[in-house]
Each structure stands twice: as structure tokens, then as C-alpha cells.
């Protein structure tokens, strides 16, 4: 009944505790002062399960005489939560979760189009588009992560929470001095109180309208159906996890919808500023759907210019700096960096430098496009000159392979890092790029987008956020 759990060298100096275990079935989930996840018949079973989930942190061995070696359990918990978040919020292509993002995004985009068409019919002139984008983005997130959606037309509480999220998103994107100099906080008290009230309202909404119902219905033996389900299982399995941690995580990830709504608004703004961008997007979309169906995530490869427009908006708008701290002495590009040094990735320089981009100030989605040759099969019928049973009317089908040039989006550009890079890279990037694409493309299929006055279209560089109450746009339904 004794096992040794060894850490691999890959994760360096994590603390290792050596604890004695009792022989026979162990009263899990506790060994010594450390808690394990779930109930297990033996320490071996417990650690086998741990090792399955955190395989690259631990290797497991049945030891000879005495004890269990446990890695830093806080790290395990964090890793479990991170893996959960990555599985749901950053799923790989061809996974069920990725496909579900696509279907949810198209569903919500269709709903948005219907709402906007009704709004346009009843309005003479321009409309405030942004609030509609924000509630749609929130519904995309709640629908995908928690299998619940809300009616923005009739649900005032929902609408208010989306507004609060948007105000907070605007605030955190402003870069106040107090962000770097915390001792200034007393000067910002009123401001902080306001933010704090918005946060409380958001938390109350998420608890009462999303979490509590699910807690009540949770079936721990059923397969994990969404992110919320996964979070509640963590809470159920691990008594050391605080309910507030889970609620905070959900709040944080749902809050990501603000970036999608604002980014789509920036994409529409780019089209309103430059009708040529809109024309190119529309001709691409018409070729793909002939106007006969909604656009889904699977259309992304055939709509490279539309996809590239989202990236070009991100290039101009993504955060100018990404702060990190060196966790060990290192050399970066030949410069010594001591452990503890704060290191900033200068995204602004990467995004706007002439060293990397031609005419970086110009809005030009085609900078993200490249031509690729793809081999295609072409069927053609030709006269065989013979008559036989297998060749009706003397025609045979001939398959030839031809090389065709297609446009596609450049991936992995080493100097384009809006979501940063490495171990802490943005978990939400798949959600952002996929949902923004689907919402934007469907809007472009259905409406011509025009500015009321191009001078109104004010946008801060290196900032995804627009104020909650921002400029209106003309949306003209297309035939
Ligand atoms: C325009 C949209 C977004 C941009 C440009 C963006 C960018 C970034 C950047 C630059 C980082 C820092 C990475 C680093 O420290 O190296 C980050 C971290 C993170 N982002 Fe995003 N993000 C966006 C939207 C989202 C969304 C929608 C979510 C969640 C649904 C999200 C979740 C996260 C999380 C959890 C981290 C921390 C990752 C970690 O420390 O392991 N982000 N993001």
C-alpha cells in the first residue's frame, strides 16, 4: 500500500512533501494535511487518477517501503482549473467544443440579424448598434459556457449586467496611473466604489440567474456538458476549493464577451470608414453562400479576407504592453535578464513598426493574406469512343488533378502577438477570433454598413474598448 510519486524535472523546483500513509483503504480525500480529489480506495488509485490528469507534472511509481511524495497541491489545483478553462475556452479545432462554439455563434448571430432587421424597419436613420453587439456576445458566452441565454429585449437585469461589463471593460482599458502606483488609490475612491458596485451587481446576477439553478440540477455522474458543469465538479470534488473562486472564474471568463462585442464594433467601424473593405468582404461572402444561408465557422477558410479584417482590427487595437516577470535568470536575445525582473512585451512596437509591416498606419487586411497552391480534383466527362455497359452513352468520367491558387490567412506570424505567446498565452483567443468572425461575417452578409459622419468614428490606438455609448451607424439591409 505504499507508493512514491515523483515529480519530473520539467517543472523545476516545486516543493515536495513526504507523507506517511496508513495501510489499507485510506480515508480519502485526506493524506496528512493535503487533500486529494474525490474518494479513492487506495492512495495508489488516487494518485493514478492525479497522474492521468496532470501527467506531465508527475510520474507515478509504486515504492518499496514507506511513503507518498506529493507535489505542490496548490499547483495541482490551479493546473486542473487551467486545463478545464483551456478545454472549454480554448478548444482545439476538430474537437466537440470547437464545433459547439461554431453552432452557438451562428445561432446567436442569426438572432442578432433578426433583431437588427426589426430595429432598422422601425427606425428612421442610424441606430446605436453597439448595445446589440454586446448582448449578442454575452449570449454567445453564456449559451456556450453555461447553456443558458437571455432575452435582451425584455430582460432588463440582463441588459444592465451587459452594460456594467462594458463600462468595466472600458475602464480597465484606460490605463490609469493608479494601476501602476497603488498608493494613489485614495484619490480614486469614488471611481473604485462605482466599479465595486457594478461588480457586485454582476456577481449577484451570475449567482441567481446562472449558477444556483445549475447547482440544484447538477448530476455528477453525467458527462461534463459545459464549462459551468466542469467548474461545479471541481467544487464538488475538492473540498478545499472555495465557491467564490469558482464564481469569480466564471465571472471572469463570461466577462470576456466584452472584448468580442467591442472588437466586432471596431470591424464594422473599419467598413464604415472604408467602403472598399466592405465591398471585398461582400464579394467573398456572396461567392461562398450565394446569400442563401447564414455563415458558420466552417466558412472561415473560404472567407480569408473577412477573417483577415478581424485580425487587422486586432493589430491596431490590441494592448500595447504585456507585462511578465522573469521566474529565473535568463538570456533574451543576448541580454541577461535576472530573476524577478519585470519584462514587457512591447506589442505596440510589434504591431506598428515599419520593420515588420509595410505602411503600418494603413488599414489593410490583405497584409494577413498569402497565396497557396492547393491540389484539386476535377471531374470531367469525355467521349470514350466505345460503347459498353459500364460507359453509358460512351461517356466516361475522367478525374484530373490540378493545382489551384487560393488565398488563405497567414498563421503564426512571429511578430504578431495580440494574445501573447508561451505558457501564459491568452486562454480566450479561440473564442475571440471564432465568435467575432461569425458575428461580423453574418452582419456583413445582411447589411451595408455606413457612417453617419466619418469624423465621429473615433477610436483610440492600441485599445479594443469603445465607450459604452458610442457612435451610431447606418445599417442598410441588403436585398
Ligand atoms: C480582444 C480580445 C483579447 C485579447 C487581445 C487578449 C489578450 C491577452 C493577453 C495579451 C494576455 C496576456 C498573456 C501573457 O501574459 O503572456 C491574455 C491573458 C489571458 N486572457 Fe485574454 N485576450 C482577449 C480576450 C480574452 C477572452 C475573451 C478571455 C476569456 C474568455 C480571455 C482570457 C484570458 C486569460 C484567462 C488570460 C490569462 C492566461 C494565463 O495567465 O494563463 N482573454 N489575454
Give a short synopsis of this structure:
With 479 residues, the chain is of the alpha+beta class. It is built from 13 helices and 14 strands. Bound molecules: protoporphyrin IX containing FE.
Describe the protein:
The protein is an alpha+beta fold and 479 residues long. The chain is 44% helix and 16% strand. The chain has 13 helices and 14 strands. The strands form seven sheets. A two-stranded antiparallel sheet has the order 1-5. Strands 2-6 form a two-stranded antiparallel sheet. The N terminus is likely disordered. The chain binds protoporphyrin IX containing FE.
Mean of residue pLDDT values: 83
Spatial strand order of the main sheet: 1-5
How much of the sequence is in beta strands? 15-25%
Radius of gyration: 27 Å
Question: What is the H-and-E element order?
Answer: EEEEHEEHHHHHHHHHHEEEEHEEHEE
Cofactors and ligands: protoporphyrin IX containing FE
Low-confidence stretches: 1-40, 54-72, 387-391
Helix content: 40-55%
Overall geometric form = globular
**CA(first)-CA(last) distance:** 74 Å
Which class best fits the helix and strand makeup?
alpha+beta
Q: Main β-sheet, in a few words?
A: 2 strands, antiparallel
Number of helical elements: 13
Assembly state of the chains shown: single chain
The total strand number stands at 14
